[in-house]
Amino acid sequence: MTTYNHSSSYNRTYEKKVIEETPRIRVTTQSSPFTTHIIPSSFPSFPSTFGGNISSIHATDESLTATMDVSQFAADDLKLMGTCQLQVSVIGQFIVVEAKHPEKADEFGFIERHFIRKFNLPRNVQPEGVSSNLTSDGTLTIQAFPLKPKDGSPARAIPIKIVSGSSMNTPSSDAKTEESK
């Protein structure tokens, strides 16, 4: 009668060594900054072009400022609104950014994009305190600042103002723009 060793220590030791020596990537989810997931570096990673690239975000209980690259949804296409849509709205306690465009040709064939990105509305900010701007180079800036509280907070669409120039505005030029309003 033949017996087989089903618990080979060599394979288990080798596997453990490979797992321990593999570089890790630590990922923090947007839902909870305190929860992290460790993903082996062998896991394929691709640039995040889905859901718009978030260039910067600054959020506190008092305000939120987020900058996103939505250049895949060209400003010229946005004017037509029949072929491409970009929308910012407040639904409940979330600022929701949604964009989509129909199938169009690119260097690899055809592509159709659609994303929905949600930001938590800051605790001390009312939905009426949310505004958004879109530059000609495809940078969407969303700002939320506190206003005097009002009764009732129904969902409302946030208009997107198309501004000239690039997204590299200086803080002093932003202040001048606000003063001229």
UniProtKB/TrEMBL annotation:
Annotated Gene Ontology cellular component terms: cytoplasm; nucleus
Domain SHSP: 45-163
A GO biological-process term: response to heat
GO molecular function, one term: unfolded protein binding
InterPro entries recorded: A-crystallin/Hsp20_dom, Alpha-crystallin/sHSP_animal, HSP20-like_chaperone
Statement: the UniProt record of this protein carries the keyword Nucleus: no
Keywords of this entry: Stress response
UniProt similarity note: Belongs to the small heat shock protein (HSP20) family.
Protein name per UniProt: SHSP domain-containing protein
Organism: Angiostrongylus cantonensis
